[in-house]
């Protein structure tokens, strides 16, 4: 998680050594995946999901006890992470 936080310019609240291997929507994310929450109307449901980490706005970190990547715009952070993931996949395919 520490490396991911650096790559997307986020502040990490949680375990820097926690390993995630993919991305998913908040509803479908598993413990090895990162998701995001940009719409706080779903805040009450954060504890019901199983994501390994959630990208949140800093002021919303208090609502989640798991690993958090804190950014002013969680949607943009998730998009950056998706772009990095896709670039890594293409690099493997092209080798």
Summarize, please:
With about 100 residues, this protein is an alpha/beta fold. About 30% of the residues lie in helices and about 20% in strands.
Task: Provide tags for this entry.
95 residues, alpha/beta, 2 helices, 5-stranded mixed beta sheet
Task: Explain what you see.
- With 95 residues, this protein is an alpha/beta fold.
- It is 29% helix and 18% strand.
- The chain has helices at residues 2-8, 74-94; strands at 11-13, 22-23, 33-36, 53-56, 67-70.
- The protein has a five-stranded mixed sheet, with helices on one face.
- It is globular and about 30 Å long.
- It starts with a helix and ends with a helix.
- Mean pLDDT is 87; it is low at 90-94.
The strand line-up of the biggest sheet is 1-5-4-3-2
- Given the C-alpha coordinates, what overall shape results? globular
Helix/strand/pairing category: alpha/beta
What's the Cα radius of gyration?
13 Å
Determine the number of helices (DSSP H or I, runs of at least 4 residues): 2
Number of strands: 5
User: Which residue ranges are poorly predicted, with pLDDT under 50 across at least 5 consecutive positions?
Assistant: 90-94
The helix/strand order is HEEEEEH
Q: Could you give a short account of the major beta sheet?
A: 5 strands, mixed
Range of strand content: 15-25%
């Amino acid at each position: 998680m520490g490396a991911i936080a650096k790559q997307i310019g986020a502040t990490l609240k949680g375990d820097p050594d926690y390993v995630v291997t993919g991305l998913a929507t908040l509803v479908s994310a598993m413990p090895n995946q990162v998701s995001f929450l940009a719409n706080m109307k779903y805040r009450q449901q954060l504890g019901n999901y199983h994501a390994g980490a959630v990208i949140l706005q800093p002021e919303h970190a208090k609502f989640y006890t798991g690993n958090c990547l804190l950014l002013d715009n969680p949607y943009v952070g998730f998009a950056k992470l998706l772009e990095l993931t896709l670039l890594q996949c293409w690099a493997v395919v092209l080798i």
